[in-house]
Amino acid sequence: MTPEIITSLQNPRVKNLVKLRDRGPRDEQGVFLVEGYRAIQRALEKGARPREVYFAREWFLGENEDELLATAAACGAELVQLGREAFAKVAYRDRPEGLLAVVEQWRASPGDLKLSPVPFLLVVEAIEKPGNLGTILRSADAAGVDAVIVCDPVTDLFNPNVVRSSTGVLFAMPVALATTEEVIAFLREKSIRTAATTPAGDRELYDVDLRGPLAIVMGSEQFGLSRRWLEACEARVRIPMAGQADSLNVAMATIVALFESVRQRRSS
Amino acid sequence: MTPEIITSLQNPRVKNLVKLRDRGPRDEQGVFLVEGYRAIQRALEKGARPREVYFAREWFLGENEDELLATAAACGAELVQLGREAFAKVAYRDRPEGLLAVVEQWRASPGDLKLSPVPFLLVVEAIEKPGNLGTILRSADAAGVDAVIVCDPVTDLFNPNVVRSSTGVLFAMPVALATTEEVIAFLREKSIRTAATTPAGDRELYDVDLRGPLAIVMGSEQFGLSRRWLEACEARVRIPMAGQADSLNVAMATIVALFESVRQRRSS
To answer: Assign residue A60 a region: left if phi > 0, alpha if psi is -120 to 50, beta otherwise?
Structure first.
C-alpha cells in the first residue's frame, strides 16, 4: 500500500483517473474504471485483473471494504488512499462509495469463444447508448446465451456506463468484438443460424423456429440493422407491436427475442 | 400570449416551475410538467389539457415550435415567453428545447377503465423508480394491454422522469390508481385471472395458460410482491433465469411476462 494519502486534486494519478472516463486514454492505457463495492467485488470474483484500487475511508458505506481491498491486493492491485475531496473528484457515480478500481481491459475475437454443443449467441451491431449495451448484457446473461458478439462497436464496451448498467455482467459474460464481415464468416463456418430482429421482418418472432444453433442479431438504436446484416441473416423476424411505433427500444426488443428463444429451446 | 418576456429568475412563475419538480406542489396544484417538443406534441395529440406552455426561442432546435405553440393555445394553454437564462433554470432535461408545458393531472379508478371483451391488464405494485415505471408503461403499450393499474403507488405517475421515460405513452395508456384491496376486489368482480410474476413462483411462465381475461401482476424493485398479492393471485409464475440472480430487473421481467402473454393470446 502506498503509505501517503493523496489529497491534491492536481496529483497526476487523480488527473489520470478523470481522464480514464474517456475512451482514448482508456484504450491507450489498456484499462478501464470500475467503481463501487459491488462492481469491484464482481470484477474480482470473475477474475478481472485490477491494477490499482483507489479508496477513501471517509466515503465508505459498509464494513467490508477492507476485506475487499485485501482481496484486490492479493490479485495484484496496488492500493492507493485518497483524501475525501480527491476521491469526490475521481468518482463518477452519484453516491461515491470510496472505492474505484483501474482494471485491465481484455479483448476476445469470435474464435476465442467457447460455444456450447448447441450454440446460442447474441450479436449486436453498433449499439450507441452505453445504458442499452449494459442492459442488453444483463438480458443475455439472464437468457443464458453462450456469448455476446459486439459488431462494429460504436459504444466502447469499457465505457463507465456500460460497466454500471451491466451490474457486473460485463465481468461474467464472454463478449467478443469483431467486424460485421468477420462475424458473418464465423457464424457460417460454425453453421449457426441467424435471426435478425427488425420492424421490417417478414415473419413474426413467434412463427420462427429458434431452436438449434442460433444467433439473435440486433441493430442500432437509430438505424436498425445494416443492409449487410439484413441480407446475410437466414430469418428476419419482427416483434408484434401494439401501440406507438417507438415503444420498444433496442434493449426491450432484445430481451423479448432472447426469451422467446429460451422458451422454444427449453423444450428442444 | 403574455406580451412581456420573463427574464427574472426570481419571477414567481419561474419559481413555481422549479417547485413543480416535487410531488407536493404538483398534487396541490393538480398539474405536472411536460418538457420538450415531442413530449408536448404527444400530450396534445392524446387530449391532455395544457394550462400553460413556457417557451424560449433561444433554445428552439427546429422550425415547428410555433405551430406547436399555436396548437397548445387552441387547446386553451396560456403561452408565456421566458428569457434564455430563465428557461435554463426551469428546464430539467439535459438539452433544453425551449418548451415546457404545465399540464393538468388526471385520475382514474379501475372502475373507470374501458376493458376489451377479453381483458388484458398489467398491475404494478409500489414501483419505486420513475424510470422503471416509464419503461413499464412503454412495454404495456407495445404489448397492447387494455390498461395499467398502479397499486399503492410509491412513485408518482406524474414524476418528470416517468413522463420522460414513458416517451409519451403516459398520455395514451389508460392508467388507474388504487389500493391493493380495491384492485383485488375489482379483478374478482370482473372475473379476471391474475398471474403474479415472482422469483419464488411455483411454475414457469411458459407452463401457465395466459389466455382469457388476465392481469399480469408485478411487485416492487426491492421487495417484490406483497404477501397479500402473492396469496390473492391465481398463479405465481417465475421466469426461467440463467446467470446472476439480479440480471432481470422489474422492467425487464415485466416485458418478458407481457410478451409471453401476447404470444399465447394471439393464437387464442
So the answer is: beta
